[in-house]
Every structure is written in structure tokens, then in C-alpha cells.
Amino acid sequence: MAEHILFLTGKLAEQQLHRILEEMAPEFEYTVHQLGLSVAALMTADMIRRRLKDTFGADRILVPGRCRGDLETLSRDLGLPVERGPEELRDLPEFFGRAARRPDLSRYDIRIFAEIVDAPHLDVDGILRQAADYRKHGADVIDLGCLPATPFPHLEAAIGALKEGGFQVSVDSLEPEDLVQGGRAGADYLLSLHEDSLWVADQVPSTPVLIPARHGDLDSLDRAVADMQGRSRPFLVDPILDPIHFGFADSLVRYHETRRRHPDVEIMMGVGNLTELTHADTAGINALLLGVCSELGIRAILATQVSKHARRAVAEADMARRIMFAAREANALPKHMGDGLMALHERAPFPYSEAEIRELAQAIRDPSYRIQISAEGIHIFNRDGFHSATDPFQLYPSLAVEHDGGHAFYLGVELARAQIAWQLGKRYTQDETLDWGCAVDPQDSKSSGADSTVDPHAYKPAGTTLAKPRGE
């Protein structure tokens, strides 16, 4: 027997929900029931508990994605599962298409070494603060970068403080003396040794990262690998990633060849030579490089955040490694695994056409302004009119808020968000901040009008949208 789903909605969305379900022609049976409220997004668990008198023989209930309240308790009270659907009705077909596989992004197999490149210039407290920020964004190992001809008198103190704080630590230097000092102070990893400096590994227990003795010389790397294998010591190898136009393509070939020669060794890739030295948004660069790592079984990367445009490189790498792991485990493309790397654009930015928004506007009977976007532009409407533009300044003369500063300010903020979303191709939802993926920390998205980290199990009070202009 086919599953029977009860869809709960509001008056304004009821007709559209019927139409979408008819177009879907789903294999399940369904009943659409509107609860007597105009806007479906204002539905709460308590409201459902009070108003729903019949479950129509359904096997489960689907409520709007923005429905607030404790659905787990509601499910127990009603005796059948109550679940949130997508936030937009137009996403229902995709929602049901993806319901069978919800990617688990909690897993990954790539370690992120996050380098503090200016560690000698920071005091110990400064190093600890940077390390805590890196760890919050996903770093597994804190790499202390030593600078050429720059004293680092507090190297041992920094390593001790980091270890006391529960961090794994690596020391990054081409000077063997720095590596010996760091290893004796308790560093877990040393970057980097080659065949002529392997004597360092005899002095300390730290795990070395091996590089070619001369740039691109994989034979020297092979000899270093054989030496370390003869000692039965753990190690990683790094053939070195070069920047674009300075050997990038050849360096990718080196990683592939290293994996062919050594199927079982642990490999590291220093991604900073691409993220730092390419003026392009780093989320896409990280996605591509972590995809290469996923294919070649490279399970460690060295990431840096020196350039201002690369300020989110660690968080992006963390998201990329989770997406690539999930895709590889599912033997699938890295699509529909998560949108955290899609900071600027979205897969389906405009769920409704202008014609559909106009149809919705015809049902509005109050003076509160609604704002939506379509591929055609920005639309703002209430019972008194429907206005469209691609520039918010064109809309101001039609809004009649010149004597209501608070409402004018609110509409200005919302229309600015709508314009940005329309220009970039992002989802816009009134009274909510735009979703910038892993490019922004959740707390950075807070504003006086919205909170992207709000608990969906708690009731969300009506936003400014539903407040009438003064004097109405």
C-alpha cells in the first residue's frame, strides 16, 4: 500500500501546493489541509496541536520548512511522524527526490594542517588565539611556520602551550636546527625533511614530512621514503604543489606519480600555493584540490590564511573534505552533498516566476509589505499594489514610508538583501539573512532583524514584515 502523507499549509499557499503535487504525480497518496492561517510560514507546533482535528488516515505529516516548535513532542501527541519539508514549495520535487539519501557530512579522512605563517612575530597568547580560531574552523594540526633568518626564541614555549591546550602541533622550517628544537619540545610533526636531512629523524620522535631534495626530483623522494621505511618510522610525503604558470600542471602529475610509485604511503598536499597565489574565490579552489586529494588518497593538506582573500581557507577545506568523502563513499558526483561551498550562487535561486508571485499577491488583504525575487527582478507588494524593479531606489517613491523612519529603514535593509540575492543568483527569504555557506560563521550572520542560528524547535515571533506602517 502506498504511503499517505498529510501536507499542512496556509490559505495563500494551498492552491499552489495542490498544483505542485499534481505536477509531481507522486507514487505516494496525499491530502492537503490548510489550518486556517494565511501564511504557512507562521505555523507552529502548538498551533497544529490546537487546530488539527483529523489526520485523514495519513502515515506521516509534512509541515512547512519554517514551522517553529517541537515536532518530536507533537509527533508523540498525534501518534504519527511530523516532519519539516522544504522552506519553498517549489523545492518539493527535489525534497522527495533526495529524501532517500541524506548525506552524512560528519565524516572525513583528510587532516588539515593549518599554518600560522607569522608565528615568530606573535607572542604565545597570540599563537593560542590563532590556533583556537583554526580549530574552530576544522584544523586538526596547528603548524608553526618558522621564517628565514628570523629568531623564534619562544618556539618551545609556544609548542608547550599548544600541547597543554590539547592541540597537535607541527613545526615548519627548512632549517634542521629549528626542526630538532621543535621535535625536542614535543612537536608531533616536522615539515620538512629530505634525503640529506633525515638525520633529524634520529634526534626526535616527531613524524616527518618528506619532500624532494631538489624541486621536482621524485627519485630523491623515493630514496627518502625507502630510508624511512627501513627505520619502520611513520612519515608523510609531499611532492610540492606549484602555483599556476609556475609548474602547476606538472606538480599535479607528480602527485599522481607519487601515488603510483607508493600506493600505501601517506601523502600531504600544500594547497596554499594555489589558494594564496590565485586571485579567485578560494572555496572553488579548495573544492577542486580536495577532490584531487580524494581521488588520489591524499589524507593531509597544509592550508594557510595569509592573503585577505584566503581568510576562510581552513573552513572551506573542512567543508570540502566532508563533501568529497560523502561523494566518494556514495560513488557519486560531489553534487547535492551540501551547499556549504556555494557562497555566491545557488542551485535554484528563483523558486517562483514573476507571474506566480503576482498570483500570490492577489490574495494579500493587509498593508504589510511582502518582498520576493524572481529571475525578472525584485518584487514588493501589499494589498495596495505590486511594484517591481531591479534597483531598490526605483521602488522608494511607491512605498509611502517617507514619514515612517523605522519602516523605511527595515524595507531598505530587506530590499538591499533582495537586490544582492537577485544579482548573484541566491535565495532570498524576507526577514532572514542571506546564506553565504561556509564563507561566514553563523554568528556573523546575525542582525537585529534576523538570526540565522535560531533554534527551529523554538517559536519564532513574527518579524517586522507583519508589522503595519505607523498610522495604518
Please, could you describe this protein's structure?
- InterPro entries: Dihydropteroate_synth-like_sf, DUF6513, Pterin-binding_dom.
- The chain has 472 residues and is of the alpha/beta class.
- It has 3 domains: 4-98, Rossmann fold (3-Layer(aba) Sandwich); 111-329, Dihydropteroate synthase-like (TIM Barrel, Alpha-Beta Barrel); 354-466, no CATH class.
- It has helices spanning 11-24, 45-51, 71-78, 92-98, 124-136, 155-164, 176-184, 199-203, 218-230, 248-261, 272-275, 282-296, 313-329, 354-361, 405-424; strands at 4-9, 29-34, 60-63, 82-84, 111-116, 141-145, 168-172, 189-193, 207-210, 236-237, 266-270, 300-304, 370-374, 377-382, 385-389.
- It has an 8-stranded parallel beta barrel, surrounded by 5 helices. A 4-stranded parallel sheet has the order 2-1-3-4.
- Helix 2 packs parallel to helix 3 and helix 12 packs across helix 13 (313-329).
- The longest helix has 20 residues, at 405-424.
- The radius of gyration is 28 Å and the shape is elongated.
CATH class annotation of the largest domain? Alpha Beta
Order of helices and strands: EHEHEHEHEHEHEHEHEHEHEHHEHHEEEH
In the CATH hierarchy, the third-tier topology of the largest domain is known as TIM Barrel
- Count of distinct strands: 15
Total DSSP helices: 15
Note the overall shape. Answer: elongated
What average pLDDT do the residues reach?
A: 91
* Total number of domains: 3
Percent of residues in helices comes to: 25-40%
Rg calc: 28 Å
How do the strands of the widest beta sheet line up side by side?
Answer: 5-6-7-8-9-10-11-12
The CATH homologous superfamily of the largest domain is called: Dihydropteroate synthase-like
Cα distance spanning the termini: 53 Å
The main pleated sheet reads as: 8 strands, parallel, barrel
The CATH architecture of the largest domain comes to Alpha-Beta Barrel
- Broad structural category: alpha/beta
- Percentage beta strand: 15-25%
Low-pLDDT runs:
445-472
